[in-house]
TrEMBL record:
Belongs to the complex I subunit 3 family. Its EC number is 7.1.1.-. It is found in: Cell membrane; Membrane. This is NADH-quinone oxidoreductase subunit A. It is an enzyme of class 7 (translocase). It catalyses: a quinone + NADH + 5 H(+)(in) = a quinol + NAD(+) + 4 H(+)(out). NDH-1 is composed of 14 different subunits. Subunits NuoA, H, J, K, L, M, N constitute the membrane sector of the complex. One of its GO terms (cellular component) is NADH dehydrogenase complex.
Length: 119
């Protein structure tokens, strides 16, 4: 028997479970609409009438959110370095300083551009 057969069977079962779950949720779930479900929601604040009429929020909200996610993920890469700092020696210190410099440059550019302002 080919060793990849078990892998293909496992992939087929996983695909069947995923598609089956989506199909069952579409069949079983109630589709009742009410004003609370259809209304726009942003951070617990009721939308202004201008936003409610158009159904959109300012793009600035999403840009600040994406900027936060990008810089947050970059900083998470420093955790493994911090846990093995003593073993890495001078090479690890130089690599970390280069990484921090590479993070700082776009952060400063974003700050100067005004991307972190809520106005």
């Amino acid at each position: 028997m080919n060793p990849y057969v078990s892998l293909l069977v496992m992939g087929a079962v996983a695909l069947l479970i995923a598609i089956g779950g989506l199909a069952m949720s579409a069949i079983i779930s109630p589709n009742r609409r009410n004003s609370t479900k259809v209304r726009n929601y942003e951070c617990g604040v009721d939308p202004t009438p201008a936003n409610n009429a158009h159904g959109r929020f300012p793009v600035k909200f999403y840009l600040v959110g994406m900027t936060f996610i990008i810089f947050d993920i970059e900083v998470v890469f420093l955790y493994p370095w911090a846990s093995s700092f003593a073993k890495l020696g001078l090479f690890g210190l130089v690599a970390a300083l280069i990484f921090i410099a590479l993070i700082t440059v776009p952060y400063v550019l974003e700050w100067r551009r005004g991307g972190l302002d809520w106005d």
